[in-house]
Amino acid sequence: MPFKHPVLTCPICGDKFRPVKEGKKFCSSKCQKRAWNQQAKQRKLLNAWQAKRIEANIFSLKRLSEMPQFKNELSRDNLISGGFDFSVAPTSFKKINDSAESVPFYADFGLLLQNDSIPTYKIIHLKS
Predict the structure, then answer these.
(1) 31-41 confidence digits (pLDDT tens)
(2) How do residues 67-105 score in pLDDT, each as one tens digit?
(3) Does the residue 2 lie in any domain?
(4) In contact, 103 and 95? CB cutoff 8 Å
C-alpha cells in the first residue's frame, strides 16, 4: 500500500492539495514560479538596501578622510557620528603591508585599527 501524503495548503494561493511527491510545497508549477519570483524580488530589494548602506559608509569614510583633524586617527565615536555604520559588512579585505592582518575595505577606503585597547582607526584611501 503506497504512502498517502497529508493534505497541505498552498502558501501562495491557499488551495488545499495532496502532494504526489514528498517535499512538495506548492499546488502547481504556477504557484511555485510565483513563489520563486517573490523570493527573487525580496533578494533584489535586500541587495539594493545593502548597497545603499555600503554607499553611505563609503561616503562617510570619504568625507571624514578629507577633514584635517581626522587625517591620522579617529575614534569609534568619531566614525559613528560621521555616519559610519559598523554593522555593514565590508566589500573586501586587503593586506596593506607585510603584516598578516587584513584590513576591511569599503570600495577604495580601508579602516585600519590602530589601537585595540582604546579603538582608534586610520582611514586608508587606495586611489585607483
Answers:
(1) 999 999 999 99
(2) 888 878 899 999 999 999 999 989 888 887 776 678 899
(3) no
(4) yes
* Cα–Cα dist 46/100, whole Å: 33
Q: How many domains does the chain have?
A: 1
Name 31's Cβ contacts closer than 8 Å, sequence gap at least 6.
10, 11, 12, 13
Residue with cell 555593514: 88
Q: What percent of the chain lies above the pLDDT cut of 70?
A: 95
The answer to whether position 109 is within a domain reads yes
Q: What whole-number distance in Å separates Cα of residue 46 and Cα of residue 57? A: 17
Provide the residue count of the chain.
128
> Where in the sequence is the domain holding 115, given as residue range(s)?
8-125
CA distance to 32, 35, 45, per residue, from 40 (Å): 12, 9, 9
pLDDT class of 1 with cuts at 50, 70, 90? very low
